[in-house]
Amino acid sequence: MNKRQVIILWIIAIALGGGVASIKFGQKHASAATTARMPGQKLLDSLPVAEAAEIDIQGVGDVTKLAKKAGKWVVSQRDDYPANASTVTEFLDTLEELKVTQGIQAGPSLAPRFGLDESATSTEKRGVTVSIKDTRGKPLATVSIDRRAAAEAPTSPYGGAPNGRFIRNHDDSKAIYRVSESFAALSNDPKRWLAEGFIQIEKIKSIAITQPDKTDLAWKLARETEEAAFTLSGAAAGETLDTTATDPLKSLFSYSKFDDVIPAAKTAELTQPTGKRCATIETLEGFTYTLTFTPLKPAATPPPAPNPASPTPPASDNYVLTVAVAAELPKERRKAEGEKPEDAKAKDTAFTERLKTLSERLEKDKAFAERNFKVSKSTIEPLLKERAALLKKDAPAGTTPPAAGMTPPSVPSALSRPATAVTPPVTIPPQPAAGQ
Predict the structure, then answer these.
(1) Torsion over CA: 120, 122, 127, 132 (sign)
(2) Which of 183, 256, 280, 341 has an alpha carbon within 20 to 30 A of 91's alpha carbon?
């Protein structure tokens, strides 16, 4: 090998070494320019879910504050009404395991481009900020999540289809990440976090309704068995119940739901001054429910032109409902005469199981006491009917019998019966058949 060949080889070696160095330098620079979390890595380094004791969810308008008290989550803005525990737990578990699908170099100043502008006044631009703290108020994690639909979310500067959500970990000031989780249930509206479930009244025996803003009885329906039809207490001669109006009352509150819980301090401000009524519902299994419902003020709208001749406030589609419940549950089963031992054993077992169910229901329903529930008009509409609306249209409506409180006489006096016309040409209405 001559001298010239040796020099050429050295030149090639130096060139190769420079190329390798350049590549390594470029890789190091590129590595320094990437986000702290790569696809597949968790968004949060650590989220000790078991230590979480407070969750603040801030968005446009409402703020939801969830707090853990006596081991249970409650909604602070709703007088510490129980929160939906499964929803809270699922959210925390999802956040703990949340993994990055794409990292984007972007500091807090670029957050508005991703729908994470904490000064914005629209949900689409503001998103939702969630802060989680422990029992001492120490922050465990703070994240901001955009609230735009996937179709509306912008693609990142580096391309990629819009899916999932953009999310910012406040402990990571150099990046915004995309995640596949949609967080569809996440909301800063307190009512969206309330525990579901409400009173479920079964086997109704009687229903008594007061007149608006009075303690006097408007009407009372009663029956002796679950299969029997209702009868109208104090019915006058010729008055016949319209079963299409009374049959729905048999399953009243069987599948009821409430829309929201109104804080006690705001109830007087939100309810109308008139229209309050009370319902007492007794069941065949010893439960007594006392329901008080008052119309809420209509949602804010431009005020109508004043009408001095009609001082009645406008009708509302929502009511505030309070519930009180008591029960006298039997201690033991009444045994039939001549009951066989094998039949008695089966009936005793069924009685014990039913008593346990009723006892659990009583405790559950008592938890609704001293709460103010917002319910839709449709939920209590059967209770809003006037006495005449319960009668068949072709039957003459008698005068409402006098009543003291909630216990009217079951048999009306002769003075309460309508006079029968006997002078022609007035036609005397036919009397109903016996038993009607």
Answers:
(1) positive
(2) 256
Q: Identify the three-state secondary structure at position 29.
A: helix
Instruction: Sketch the domain layout of the chain as residue ranges.
Output: 49-193, 204-299+315-331+353-412
Q: Is the pLDDT of residue 213 over 70?
A: yes
Residue 132 pLDDT > 90: yes
Q: What is the pLDDT of residues 280-323, one digit of tens each?
A: 999 999 999 999 999 999 876 555 555 555 455 556 789 999 99
H or E, element range at 374: strand 373-376
- Which distant-in-sequence residues (6+ apart) come within 8 Å of 69 by Cβ? 80
Phi, psi of 303, rounded to the nearest 5 degrees: -65, 140
DSSP 207-238: EEEEPTTSSSEEEEEE-SSSSSPPEETTPPTT
What pLDDT does residue 411 have?
37
Task: Work out the angle at residue 153's Cα, subtended by the Cα atoms of residues 152 and 156, and round it to the nearest 5 degrees.
Answer: 145
Average pLDDT of the residues in 174-178: 94
Tell which residue, 289, 295, 361, 299, has the closest CA to residue 325.
Answer: 289
- Classify 241 as helix, strand or coil: strand
Up-side HSE of residue 150: CA atoms within 13 Å toward CB?
Answer: 13
Cis? peptide before 418, omega within 30° of 0:
no
Q: How far apart are CA 204 and CA 251, in angstroms?
A: 8
Instruction: Please give the backbone phi and psi of residue 359, each rounded to the nearest 5 degrees, phi first.
Output: -65, -40
CB 281 within 8 A of CB 293: no
CB atoms within 10 A of CB 52: 22
The separation between the first and the last C-alpha atoms of the chain, rounded to the nearest angstrom, is: 127
Full DSSP string of 264-308: HHHHHHHB-SS--EEEEEEETTSEEEEEEEEEBPPPP-PPPPP-T
Prediction pTM value: 0.75
